[in-house]
Each structure stands twice: as structure tokens, then as C-alpha cells.
């Protein structure tokens, strides 16, 4: 697969997707948006890939929608069929929309936030499973300053991550916050020096790829993202059913064997 506005590389079990419009602070275009979904789907289909890293070239992670495209964007484009196609028919309809398909990917997605994450850039980070930020990263919702609203489910996502009070602040004021403030409110998992960002993210991805069962990771990711829609009883019922399948899996047998034999795990994902 050849991409025009992003870079896609695979190194062992790690797929790295790098937004590649540095002169425009990796702002989204229709081309880049379509390529991003294709790249995540490509990584999802690759049986050798066990973790996905999303980052940007240059000084920004993603500065949102490209203003030149936003100015001429037809209002109805936001609901265009090309953006709303199902990612996985076995997943909730909630995770089949324009950006919410990130949670439908069975593999963990790590956002390596190297710089500005604003508007849709912040939305993508929120839909990721991990957010590791450079000390140079800055964050802003930006929507209110553009005369827009809390789009693509961010009004649902943001309070669940940072709480209602912080979400109200960030959405209504559109103010910028730095990496340390983002860490303090729980918006990111970790803040590291800029020159250590990719090494830190790759170490996390390597751990997810080699030290834990990819089958377990995929199931637990699904449990975590579906839990907000479930009662406690429903969550327990699902967990009980999944536990039966886990106990029958190759990865469970390997999980016991490598512990007893005191050797590195060799999980198959089955």
C-alpha cells in the first residue's frame, strides 16, 4: 500500500503510522483522513503486528482539520457514507463512525504526542488506548474558537478521561494547556523529554507485543471500551463468557508454561 500524506512502517510486531504534512502541522485533509483509516485497518489485518503507534512528523502531532479544507467543507460531509462505513461488524455501532473506529481495532493504539494536538488531533488521541506526550506537547479543543461544537464524540470521551470539570473548562474556553497540566488532569499517561518520546513509546509497544498475550489484550480492550454501555451484571456476564474461552486458549497454556519454566513468553495470540 502506497500512502501520499502519511508514512507506514512495520518493525517486527510494531506498526508505526506517522502523519506526514509537517508544513501544515499535520493538519487533516480528506486524503489524510482516508489514508489514516486505511493504515489502521492494514495494521489490524497484519497478523504479525501486535501494537500500533500513531505520531506526526515535525513539531506537531496533528493541529486539527486543515483550515483551507475546512473553509470549503460542505456541512453534510461530516455524515458522508465514506466516513461512516463499518470497521468491524462484530463491534458496537458506536465504534463504527468517523473517528470512533480506533476502539474497534483489536490491537492497542499508542499516540506518541510529539507536539500540538488540537481539535481533531486531540479527538484522535482520546480514542487511542495510550497517550504518551513529549514535554513540548500542547493541547487544545479549539472548537469554540472556530464557531464549532464538541464534535465526533469528544463531549462523551473527554469527561470520562479528565472528569466533567476539566472537560467543561477545555471545551468552553478552548484554551491551550501544556503537557504537565495535561498529565495532572489525567489527559495523558506520561510526559517524557522530547528526545526520549519515541524510545519510550517503542518500549511500551514492545512490552505489549512480547510480554503479554495479544489475545488477552484484544479481549480486554474490547471489555474496557464496551463497559460504559453495560451494567455491572452485563460486564460480569461478558467476563465470565470470555474467561471460559481464555481458559481454552493456547495463550493461557503458554502463560502458565512460561511462568513455571521461568522463560520468556512465546504467545501465539490464539
From TrEMBL:
Gene name tied to this protein? echA86
Q: Which CDD domains match?
A: crotonase-like
Name of this protein: Putative enoyl-CoA hydratase echA8
EC class: lyase
Q: Which organism is it from?
A: Variovorax paradoxus
The family note in this entry says: Belongs to the enoyl-CoA hydratase/isomerase family.
Q: Which UniProt keywords apply?
A: Lyase
Q: Which GO terms describe its molecular function?
A: enoyl-CoA hydratase activity
EC number(s) on file: 4.2.1.17
